[in-house]
Design goal:
The complex is a heterodimer of chains A (about 300) and B (about 120).
Chain A lengths: L2 H12 L5 H11 L3 H14 L4 H13 L3 H14 L4 H13 L3 H14 L4 H13 L59 E6 L4 E6 L8 H21 L5 E8 L2 E7 L4 E8 L4 H21 L3
Antiparallel strand pairs in A: 1-2, 1-5, 3-4, 4-5
Chain B lengths: L1 H12 L4 E8 L5 E6 L5 H21 L5 E8 L2 E8 L3 E7 L5 H16 L1
Antiparallel strand pairs in B: 1-2, 1-5, 3-4, 4-5
């Protein structure tokens, strides 16, 4: 047992009514002991139902557990008790962002920055959103998850593979970051093919905006929500595992497909490519991605 | 209006492999009209389809693909098809693995376009 957990546990044993439960729950959460953290937080909140920081920790635990609805409720409770709680404001932004409500996420971040203009995490998140997806243009776009971690969660490092950036040469891919060249040989390999994990973090490939900017993280964050929704839909309707989602949109066709457990592929093709062909292209990319992941031991 | 909606569902339901089709309110995911085989959970299909399309539309917007016109989710045991019918409805169909997706898509897009007119 780490020293901090041991000390906090001892403090709580000496005084069960202590507010140290929140700190203990947070320490356990950071160590990945989520169930234990949840137990401590709920127990503490039973004694201190008006303790804003306790509800804040509870929200982070729920968020770590993937239960965004409960996380949202807990952060809402924090803001009832402490309307200027910066952690809760960032938490609400995170949840709103994952739910596809960029406007609400932005508002929450702006409130957090109004309270603490030096909050670097909130600054980065807001800057990224404004740079990659102006809210007025993309009302349902989502913030990159990496910029909006639940408080206390390490910010995932940008994918910095050894591969060359945007070698496709197409202007639209020119601004995409260097990532593992998994799809080299595919048309628009770093501008229209994106591999991500189930948490919405980019693994390989890339996605460029029409102006050439890298929107990979933005897209990945949004797609994680799509994957969860597809899984839920297939389960509820007893359809078995879902294989592909094809979305025909005004200016492009999108194919989304799971790649083994825990990874997801997005292929964007111009509307001029028939859907059937886009599906075959995506199937080939999925095979390549699957082989690469296996090679990574993933 | 209701006759027009019903006729569209009838045409969609004639496609081989179709288990049911519905008009769904896009905002709240509630069925507006439906033609379902026995055992198909209409309310669940409506709610889940609306939610899925919202998510997909959000992502399509984020990647610059624009407004979504048709969504198909293929699973091991069937296919869910959705065509948004602006301003506020969705045409939703649930089919088994034998479905002719191309034909179903044509009927659904036609229904959505007719409603928009």
């Amino acid at each position: 047992m780490a020293d901090d957990v041991r000390a906090l546990t001892a403090a709580l044993a000496r005084d069960p009514s202590s507010l140290a439960y929140a700190e203990l729950a947070e320490s356990l959460r950071r160590r990945g002991q989520r169930d234990e953290a949840l137990r401590v937080a709920l127990h503490g909140l039973a004694r201190h139902p008006q303790h804003a920081d306790g509800h804040d920790v509870l929200a982070r635990i729920y968020s770590d557990l993937g239960d965004l609805d409960r996380a949202q409720l807990a952060w809402s409770k924090v803001l009832e008790l402490a309307p200027e709680h910066p952690g809760a404001l960032k938490g609400v932004a995170f949840v709103r962002f994952r739910q596809g409500d960029a406007r609400a996420a932005t508002e929450a971040l702006e409130r957090a920055l109004a309270i603490d203009p030096d909050d670097e995490a909130a600054q980065r998140a807001l800057e990224t959103m404004r740079r990659d997806a102006p809210v007025a243009d993309l009302p349902t776009a989502e913030l990159p998850a990496a910029e909006l971690p639940t408080p206390g969660t390490p910010v995932p490092a940008p994918d910095a593979g050894a591969g060359p950036a945007a070698q496709a040469g197409a202007a639209r891919g020119a601004g995409v970051r260097a990532r593992p060249p998994v799809f080299s040989g595919f048309d628009r390999a770093t501008a229209d093919i994106l591999l991500l994990d189930e948490r919405g973090l980019v693994l390989a490939g890339g996605l460029a905006s029409p102006s050439g900017g890298d929107v990979s993280e933005l897209a990945a964050a949004g797609l994680a929500g799509v994957s969860g929704e597809a899984t839920r839909t297939a389960q509820h309707l007893a359809l078995g595992g879902w294989r592909t989602i094809v979305a025909e949109a005004e200016s492009a066709n999108l194919v989304v497909a799971p790649v083994g457990p825990g990874a997801l592929l997005l292929v964007r093709r111009d509307r001029s490519m028939p859907v059937g062909l886009a599906l075959r292209f995506a199937e080939r990319a999925r095979g390549t991605a699957s082989a690469w992941l296996e090679g990574q031991g993933a | 209006m209701s006759e027009e909606l019903a006729r569209a569902l009838d045409r969609i339901s004639r496609v081989r492999g179709m288990r049911g089709s519905m008009w769904v309110s896009a905002d709240d995911g509630l069925p507006v009209a439906q033609l379902l085989m026995e055992g198909v959970p209409g309310r669940a299909v409506a709610a889940l389809a609306a939610s899925l399309v919202r998510k997909v539309s959000g992502s399509a917007g984020a990647v610059g693909a624009g407004r979504v016109r048709f969504v198909q989710m293929e699973a091991a045991g069937g296919t869910l098809l959705v065509a948004p019918a602006p301003p506020d409805l969705l045409v939703v169909a649930l089919a088994d693995g034998r479905v002719n997706v191309g034909l179903a898509r044509l009927e659904m897009m036609r229904a959505a376009a007719a409603l928009a007119r």
